[in-house]
Amino acid sequence: MILVVFIKGLIIDFVSKFYKRIRLADLRLKNTSCRFSSSSEILESNFGKSVVIFDNNNIYNSKVDSYSYIQMGSRIFNCEIGKFCSIASNVSIAPGIHDLNNVTTHPVLVQKSAPLPKVFGKKDNIVTYKKVFIQNDVWIGEKAIILDGVKIGNGAVVASGAVVIKDVDPYSIVGGVPAKHIKYRFDQETIDLLQKSEWWNFSDEWFEKNADLMLDIDGFKEYLKNDKQNI
């Protein structure tokens, strides 16, 4: 009996790894400019160009746009991530919702579709997730948690270990548990100019020619004021 269970486990493990390799191969064929670690589990997700997914990530029902990357050990569920975003290691996004107003918070008694061996719920009675929206040029520090339904604005920074429970303004730096606004990266005039420019949508040709300008906020502002028509 023990041998049968052992062999069955080996077969299940082999089949699971086999289908994972097929999914990964298909993903790489569809996204030739991207890099996906073979140790990451990626399901029902879409990617822009030159995206990098490092080791041991779990990504489900999400979109990651161009030039963004996700470091090791992160869990990204039901999320749209914009361009040029930096997601550090061990970040959790949209971990799920448990209703606090029922007799129990456990899904097995209230949710028919709960992913458990046995459920008692006759229908899906609660909302178990809400989509997270992360705009462009966002930096999320290591071990941060972004709760369901949150929107993080362009250029924002989330400090390591922060727990974000509400929307974050563009170019705001937040930290703590729960996360609170610390300061803005720039003054309001600069923020408005960057927002209006939507520089993350500039062409690759522009970045090839003007990459050094991204190191000089004053020079970039001057460029936007004088030469935006040339983009």
Automatic annotation (TrEMBL):
Pfam families: Hexapep. PROSITE patterns: HEXAPEP_TRANSFERASES. One of its GO terms (molecular function) is acyltransferase activity. InterPro entries: Hexapep, Hexapep_transf_CS, Trans_hexapeptide_repeat, Trimer_LpxA-like_sf. Keywords: Acyltransferase, Repeat, Transferase. The keyword Cell membrane does not apply. Gene3D superfamilies: Hexapeptide repeat proteins. Signal peptide: none annotated. PANTHER family: ACETYLTRANSFERASE, ACETYLTRANSFERASE RV3034C-RELATED. Belongs to the transferase hexapeptide repeat family. This is Acetyltransferase. It comes from Flavobacterium flevense.
